[in-house]
């Protein structure tokens, strides 16, 4: 028992997660997840252990070898893999991308193979073979061949069109060009001809063709700016920096041509933010990481040219690996339809077996004793019954509708085009239309239960705007004139006095401008100077204009704000920064940059002023800044109050502070700083520890408040979707305050919402697990599972869970510890058995915990949690609900592919999410129209189509069944062969197709106005097994009426001319005519939205039937094909009898009048929501359109404050303040100033 307990606690021991940790990528690395418990062991032991752990995997994982400028090296035998028998190919992929499926030779065989994998197509192929056997078939072979060829042909044409488009796209990408070193010179080559080991040159605005190691560039220190919108949806620029050795020696063409570096690195994988490798060159090894790699899909910006070495090409690149395997998605109706076809097949088999037994009995009782029925065959009745079984399988095969699948495909294709053509989903600003990238999921858009949305670039514009600030306890940003008087309406501040203002900042507080220009309060100027100097923004000039490149949009917004208020950041070198202070240029020496990371939540810069003073300027989250303030800060409370006000307005806040440093203090600290900067192990931890020593006793200046602008219409869209009972989960990597902010801004959270955080959820789930464990005794297996709610009924609740808490809740943080445990190999069989049992218990516990989490989360109206595809998968797995995921970057691809439906946001963001999505458009607000209009219409159209399709086929086919009782169960057909062939192809196909394409219960405006209509689709009310059997019953009753009324009319009949039109052929014509009129009028009753096209198709189909029938029954065609057209003169002879027309009219009336009566009673007594809206649609159209409710945010002090977001990764400080950029030797200074009070007084006096 003790061993079991030890093994369990070894896995489960964990410190509490840090709610502020923000993982950069979707899935945190094991190292990040285990950092929280690392302080338990001594520091040196930890360093030694990590060194041992890291060294061994490096040798095992770095098996990818690249030799520069040596293509033959990669063609060596040990790099070749066997592909097929003796055919071998290199493990290094070429750079050509292939997304198409077919070529000119493989299209027909592969397409036919894929189509015959469908059970229905294969079934009809087998039927066609059976029909070629004369002893079995009573039907001509063409009755099956013609519809089958039509189905295969339409599907093949659709597949061909799709594949041609993929061919064109692949060709366009593969034929792009760049410069590659060949024969010692740079020569232009196509992307598809690039290979691993090639050295290439890229120029400004070029796409990166492969994953390459940056060797050098035109920028200082071989810096290279890249835009990663294709990868992560972020439009702000990132920087990459080459190794110092390659920057120094590989600038010229001749040196690049002779470069013979050798790289060992990790195998191709999909981790966009990770890379591990080593460059061996000049008898030295150099470590490589992700900062030195340019990934395929990035765009070179602000860099004239750069050189790189191809490491991964084509399918091995990270962007292609990240795309993952395309999951084939099918709709819920697809699965239901397949089960219903299987049900029909079972019914068909049972009917055929019953009729075959009937025929065997009839042969034994009647056939063998009727000399006039002798056919020359002496088969036994049982054998004749066996043959008749297959005969009835053929005769009744139309119960399984061959044209069903192709008709569904045609309808879906049309609905997809309607989405593409919808001008109300067209974004004119970026010339981006909505695009249905698949044609198989349209009706599923009308059944969504959960939406999983990314935040940045999806809900927001990813545009930050400076709104307000608090300086020295005074709030600025309201509508005030220069005399400090508030006004409701006041003009924007005019920044024309500032030559560096960009004219884009909308600010209305004229009093702040007065304070800056007058200089009465030095803190105001120092505030904006801090914003201009404390950052890692890069700048360049284009046509005399300043262009800032920031590591995050919020940092760019603050530097731009300082620029507009008169403190413009002009230039920087490795160790200086130049600021224009109200028109006066001043240059400061940058002594150190203490960069941001997600643990520090702040950044600082240490500068030497032109006067020789050393100052530290710091900005960061209020939670960390307030801990480091000097005890004597008189504006501390006023700033705290301002932060609360900003938080209530859902603005993102940031605190600013500074301190002066003595020379001696800085000199001592700088020694520690330089030592930590070159540490070979745990460099980040060492730097953070040194940073802590200097960032204390700070003087508070104030706080900023910036707005993360939502896209237009986001709150209205979310509000309408919520009224449609769609639950929206926002998946973001932000900290909880930022997540809460975005929730209130989007109106996902309201004043009535009770918010639960990670710690609350963890305790609830822990308590539930304990209860389940206590109940799980000996008799647990006999007791039914109890589904108890986690929360009391009533109330509006929301969950906000950060990445670390989500890992804790889902028990996803144990991987590295499990690896450590595996090092202790079990010595005995008992230990191995106990280890296996422990592992099984942990897996069961994890599964139960995840199931409980999903149950708890689904009780809440809103969930805001970490961005992980696992969340989508859990809801799909445990709730069996239809999910939709929407995102804009490559980090959303897994989520988009995991959900039932994936939507990509296109436009200014990257295209990787769009390429992996099922639908795409430019703005989040179009989602409401996609679901509430196109989704709802597609759902009701498909449901009506399927119900009617099954009905008309049963009504048509089961006439044979009733006829069997009067023909000795002989498998004789009740219709002419050509009528059977053309019934589903011509006589009843067009009206149902047009209903599936055009029908709508209410208009698009009313669909948006009444989102409650959407709930019908979520509950599967329009198409389910109940509706299916009702349609079947309707078809059965219709077939009975179609057969027995004409049968009764034909029993004792004499025509006007004394002839009795009671022959078999006239009877077949009568039934067929009544059937065509009935099923076409029935679809008229089912149609809600009438157009000329619908009416023409219904009456045109009836006219077409009569026209073709008279042609087929003509003498002329019989003379040409006597064996194929045998009903010569039947139509003209039968239909000239008024008695026949009265029979047809009576049959149609008896079929349709009960339907009309039932529909009338239903709409009168039990009207649906749609019926009510249709009844009052004229009045509703006249009313004013529904408006978004106005909401006032008036929450008090809350945890809703969102600190400055910074970048998810470190900024540009590594470039600016690394050993390579700070080369100036610094003079020694005294120790750290102990008397902070004196420092504060000195500052106050100034």
TrEMBL record:
GO terms for cellular component: apical plasma membrane; cytosol; endoplasmic reticulum; nuclear body; phospholipid-translocating ATPase complex; stereocilium; trans-Golgi network. The active site is at residue 454. Mg(2+) binds at residues 454, 456, 888, 892. Residues 43-54 have a biased composition (Basic and acidic residues). It comes from the Eukaryota. Residues 67-145 form the P-type ATPase N-terminal domain. Gene3D superfamilies: Calcium-transporting ATPase, cytoplasmic domain N, Calcium-transporting ATPase, cytoplasmic transduction domain A, HAD superfamily/HAD-like. GO terms for molecular function: aminophospholipid flippase activity; ATP binding; ATP hydrolysis activity; cardiolipin binding; magnesium ion binding; phosphatidylcholine flippase activity; phosphatidylcholine floppase activity; phosphatidylserine floppase activity. The keyword Magnesium applies. Residues 914-1168 form the P-type ATPase C-terminal domain. It is found in: Apical cell membrane; Cell membrane; Cell projection, Stereocilium; Endoplasmic reticulum. It catalyses: ATP + H2O + phospholipidSide 1 = ADP + phosphate + phospholipidSide 2; a 1,2-diacyl-sn-glycero-3-phospho-L-serine(out) + ATP + H2O = a 1,2-diacyl-sn-glycero-3-phospho-L-serine(in) + ADP + phosphate + H(+); a 1,2-diacyl-sn-glycero-3-phosphocholine(out) + ATP + H2O = a 1,2-diacyl-sn-glycero-3-phosphocholine(in) + ADP + phosphate + H(+). ATP binds at residues 454-456, 555, 596, 619, 652, 732-734, 868, 891-892. Keywords: ATP-binding, Cell membrane, Cell projection, Endoplasmic reticulum, Golgi apparatus, Lipid transport, Magnesium, Membrane, Metal-binding, Nucleotide-binding, Translocase, Transmembrane, Transmembrane helix, Transport. Its cofactor is Mg(2+). Residues 174-237 form the P-type ATPase A domain. The chain crosses the membrane at residues 116-133, 139-161, 339-362, 389-408, 948-966, 978-998, 1028-1052, 1064-1083, 1095-1119, 1139-1162. It is a multi-pass membrane protein. GO terms for biological process: apical protein localization; bile acid and bile salt transport; bile acid metabolic process; Golgi organization; inner ear receptor cell development; negative regulation of DNA-templated transcription; regulation of chloride transport; regulation of microvillus assembly. InterPro entries: ATPase_P-typ_cyto_dom_N, ATPase_P-typ_P_site, ATPase_P-typ_TM_dom_sf, ATPase_P-typ_transduc_dom_A_sf, ATPase_P-type_domA, HAD-like_sf, HAD_sf, P-type_ATPase_IV. Its EC number is 7.6.2.1. Residues 1-54 are annotated as: Disordered. Residues 25-35 have a biased composition (Acidic residues). Component of a P4-ATPase flippase complex which consists of a catalytic alpha subunit ATP8B1 and an accessory beta subunit TMEM30A. The flippase ATP8B1:TMEM30A complex can form an intermediate phosphoenzyme in vitro. Also interacts with beta subunit TMEM30B. This is Phospholipid-transporting ATPase. It comes from Rhinopithecus roxellana (Golden snub-nosed monkey).
